[in-house]
Amino acid sequence: MSPRSARLARLSRSVTFSACHRLHSKSLSDEENLKLFGKCNNPNGHGHNYKGRKVTPILAHGIDPVSGMVMNLTDLKEYMQEAIMEPLDHKNLDKDVPYFSEVVSTTENVAVFIWDSLQKLLPQGILYKVEVHETEQNVVVYKGEQTIVK
């Protein structure tokens, strides 16, 4: 393969943010919410130190033969600032982020929110997956193209 042939590479950059939220579904009664979400259904919400809450979007694209990069990391940092940090960092997800007024603010849905927000900014087709580490033990991976029909 010649040096000028595009080779596929995956690029990632991580950010950490702090937020609070309440796991609560408007579709369920208060009793059902408490049974399903336990202490995470506290009416006043709950927060995390989020030291372990790490978000890693992973891009997959050919390496540009001129720049030698999948994407300039400075540009990726700016996109992540706009799509992740500005709307989510130090926020009450349920009260400060309009998306979560109708969607339960689970880590799964946070990953979807981040995917959708990044998709609007990144070049089309470059976003491969989003990983959201809620804690050291809990990780959600979302690859937006897959849906389940019920």
General description of the model:
The chain is 27% helix and 23% strand. The chain is α+β, with helices and mostly antiparallel strands and 150 residues long. It has a single domain, classed as 2-Layer Sandwich (Tetrahydropterin Synthase, Chain A). The termini are far apart. It holds the Pfam family PTPS. Pathway: Cofactor biosynthesis; tetrahydrobiopterin biosynthesis; tetrahydrobiopterin from 7,8-dihydroneopterin triphosphate: step 1/3. This is 6-pyruvoyl tetrahydrobiopterin synthase. One of its GO terms (molecular function) is 6-pyruvoyltetrahydropterin synthase activity.
Which helices and strands, and how do they pair?
Layout (H helix, E strand, L loop, with lengths): L7 E5 L2 E2 L2 E3 L8 H8 L8 E2 L6 E9 L10 H16 L2 E2 H4 L10 H13 L7 E7 L5 E4 L8
Parallel strand pairs: 3-6
Antiparallel strand pairs: 1-5, 2-5, 3-4, 5-7, 7-8
Summarize the structure.
27% of the residues lie in helices and 23% in strands. It is α+β, with helices and mostly antiparallel strands and 150 residues long. It is elongated, with a radius of gyration of 18 Å.
Give unreliable regions as ranges: none
**Global structural class:** alpha+beta
Span of the ends, CA to CA? 45 Å
Number of domains: 1
In CATH, the homologous superfamily goes by the name 6-pyruvoyl tetrahydropterin synthase/QueD
The number of distinct β-strands equals 8
CATH architecture: 2-Layer Sandwich
What is the 3D form? Answer: elongated
> What summary fits the major beta sheet?
5 strands, antiparallel
Mean pLDDT reading: 88
What is the fold named in CATH at topology level?
Tetrahydropterin Synthase, Chain A
Radius of gyration: 18 Å
The level of helicity is 25-40%
Strand-and-helix sequence, N→C? EEEHEEHEHHEE
| Strand percentage | 15-25%
At the first level of CATH, what is the class? Alpha Beta
Please work out how many helical segments DSSP would assign: 4
Keywords: Lyase, Metal-binding, Tetrahydrobiopterin biosynthesis, Zinc
GO molecular function, one term: 6-pyruvoyltetrahydropterin synthase activity
EC number: 4.2.3.12
Pathway: Cofactor biosynthesis; tetrahydrobiopterin biosynthesis; tetrahydrobiopterin from 7,8-dihydroneopterin triphosphate: step 1/3
